[in-house]
TrEMBL record:
Record organism: Flavihumibacter stibioxidans
Pathway field: Cofactor biosynthesis; tetrahydrofolate biosynthesis; 2-amino-4-hydroxy-6-hydroxymethyl-7,8-dihydropteridine diphosphate from 7,8-dihydroneopterin triphosphate: step 3/4
Record-given protein name: dihydroneopterin aldolase
Gene3D superfamilies: 3.30.1130.10
Catalytic activity, EC: 4.1.2.25
UniProt-listed SMART domains: FolB
Dihydroneopterin aldolase/epimerase domain segment(s): 4-115
Catalysed conversion reaction: 7,8-dihydroneopterin = 6-hydroxymethyl-7,8-dihydropterin + glycolaldehyde
InterPro entries: Dihydroneopterin_aldolase, FolB_dom, GTP-CH-I_C/QueF
């Protein structure tokens, strides 16, 4: 098993249910782990592996599409990754809203979604 990690990625997006979030936007932190089974014994060729650059492009593209719920956003990212990479065993994604529109709140809020797949 091999796990690809993309952590502490920051995106500006327009996700949320509160009035104005779809116009003002917010900064989001994304942490993503993709675990998969490598079919080849030698790990010397990218064509046999999952490219974190390609995965970043999936994230970057999807984070630009306004979505009311972080859960829906996370699920759509996982579905895209599992569709593009059928060898995936597990995807775990955390998405944090860095400036939550909650009065007197300091910190970040977010969700983590994990999906397991049979290869």
């Amino acid at each position: 098993m091999l796990t690809v990690h993309l952590h502490q990625l920051i995106f500006h997006g327009f996700h949320g249910l509160y009035p104005g979030e779809e116009k003002i936007g917010n900064d989001f932190e994304v942490n993503l782990d993709i675990t998969y089974n490598v079919k080849k014994k030698k790990l010397d060729n990218l064509k046999n592996l999952i490219s974190y650059e390609d995965v970043f492009q999936i994230l970057n593209h999807r984070m630009q599409v306004s979505t009311p719920l972080l859960e829906e956003l996370a699920d759509s990212i996982i579905r895209k990754i599992s569709h593009q990479y059928p060898q995936v065993e597990q995807v775990r994604i955390s998405i944090y809203k860095l400036q939550a529109p909650i009065e007197n709140f300091r910190g970040k809020v977010g969700i983590t979604l994990t999906r397991n797949f049979n290869s």
